[in-house]
Amino acid sequence: MEGIRGGRSxxxxxxxxxxxxxxxxxxxxxxAKVVVAELNEAAGRETERMIRDSxxxxxxxxxxxxxxxxxxxxxx
Length: 76
Known about the structure:
Layout: E1 9-13, H1 18-29, E2 33-38, H2 41-53, E3 61-64
């Protein structure tokens, strides 16, 4: 795998822990600008801190998402 070259962007959902966090850290270490998307705001901020501390690309932004409550994605 060649990896991500600098200048790319990635939105990583579930970036506050587990595989999502590891993907966010990997992409940032390869120069991508990462949007950290996470339900748990504190966990998302921790991932951002880890990215900054590791010397990876600075997170481009953080997005706190809301849990899906059901229903349809498209109006009938």
